[in-house]
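FAQ: What does the model actually see?

It sees only this:
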Amino acid sequence: MSDQSSTAAVPPLTHLRLERPAPGVALLVLDQPERRNAMSDEMTASWVAAIDHLAADPSVRAVVVTGEGKGFCSGGDLSWLAAEPDASVDTLRSRMLPFYRAWLSIRRLEVPTIAAINGAAIGAGLCMALACDIRYAAAGARLGVPFTKLGIHPGMAGTYLLPDVVGPAAARDLFLTGRLVDADEALGLGLVSRVIEPESFLDTVLETAAGIAATAPIASRLTKTVLARGHASVEACLDWEALAQPVTLATEDLQEGIRAAQEKRAPSFRGR
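And it is asked to produce this:
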């Protein structure tokens, strides 16, 4: 990876904003606050276009997702389900799978991703946050997967992602009761890593993202990759590390990191 900036134009986006608040940091803002940032068809298409754009931009080193207004994301816009009560299972499946894959496309990004949960994150909205590497919540935010309360089975890979994050026991509790938890309980469950006061929430998250963006890009990407894939055993872990660590030892960034430590200054990594 180089430090060269992308020259590609930002694609037209609807109900979604793409901002660059700091070097190396991209901010995606779900922008339909009057509908609590529900995942409309237009927002979904824009999300895919934005993810494709970011994936092709070598200057991006961290991505933050948040919601406009008081909510993070209220989940899928399921009004079309009520409008199509006679739709067949095959018809619904052919519509749901592309929807799931569209929003889970954030998992394709090789750089660290942060869900900045500024308010309610419900159903598929929470599942999208679970697809990110890190989750921070604003104090007062509420989170949950109340699918069964609506009479619907969970979707958006929730039955994979939620147990992976909070463990099977807590996942059963949240799925089968459909209850919402506040930010503090979410922190205790491991659903989020930090709870931050609303007044400083986004600034604090963006500061954290800038810190991630300042780390060595090759090491960061390889670390994200292995944490996402996991290991079958300790020996498999050692096999990976015995290859990945030498890759980073051979980089110019390592020499820069050592020099910066010796000179007691911040390193300037270039992804080389």
